[in-house]
């Protein structure tokens, strides 16, 4: 539900000039906004990991033991990187 709002703000409102870059920068510096962005990255990456894992099952590769660690570990690593990037903003 937050993705359309994020796409609107970052993809339409800022480039069109409806929201100034200074206002957008101050919005992103807000700790609550950073937390929401990291939460969105978490949800997107784990959604990807789950869907990709079971797409491989549907293609006949089956559930391999290490497959779970590879996909969900990649999602966790991406979430950690996003959290560290959010701290540096």
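Q: What amino acid sequence fits the structure above?
A:
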């Amino acid at each position: 539900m937050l993705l359309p709002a994020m796409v609107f703000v970052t993809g339409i409102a800022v480039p069109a000039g409806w929201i100034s870059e200074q206002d957008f920068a101050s919005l992103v510096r807000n700790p609550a906004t950073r937390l929401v962005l990291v939460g969105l990255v978490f949800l997107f990456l784990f959604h990807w990991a789950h869907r990709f894992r079971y797409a491989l099952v549907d293609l006949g590769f089956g559930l391999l033991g290490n497959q779970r660690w590879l996909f969900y570990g990649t999602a966790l690593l991406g979430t950690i990187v996003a959290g560290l990037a959010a701290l540096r903003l």
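Q: And what stands out in the fold?
A: The chain is about 85% helix and 0% strand.
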